[in-house]
Amino acid sequence: MALALANRYASALLEVVTQTGSTVTDKVTLEQLRDFQNTLEVSEELRNILESPAITPADKRKLTALVAERLEIPAIVRNFLYVVIDHHRVTLLGEMIDALQNLIDSRDNMARITVTAARPIPEKQQEALVLKFGQVTGCTVSAEFAVAPELVGGVTVRFGSTIFDGSLRAQLNNLNHALLGDA
Prior knowledge:
This protein is an alpha+beta fold. It has a 4-stranded mixed β-sheet with strand order 2-1-3-4. Strand 3 and strand 4 form a beta hairpin. It starts with a helix and ends with a helix.
């Protein structure tokens, strides 16, 4: 239910930003929401106040206005935050941001992948991997690369909710299960 709700809020925001002739782009909107979310993550006190049912929505709006002013958040994003606060959905803001990113990516034919390897992947191999995923998906690919020594060798690739696990750790686990008769 939370995901469906986050998607509804994100869809509504994207529609407002793209169809009202706003000078604020969807990508700026996304960036501003991330800035606000980062502020919530850094300030536990602010997050507790905005999530508290004991604090009135009017007081939460005043506090949000102060934070938004400091972060130079435009009115259209500020108004969205007010709606989120008024409907007691602050805890879903992270999911709303993810949903907005997914909607923008889908519209722009963009695929985001996260590649994790046991050791840093050389730049030429990174480029080849991005090119191959672009050919497979038919999308423009944006890749994030990470290192996780516990993989032992090989790579894992996260594409949306799908994980392609070509790590040596996974292969050893599969071999272990096969030898023990668990597979």
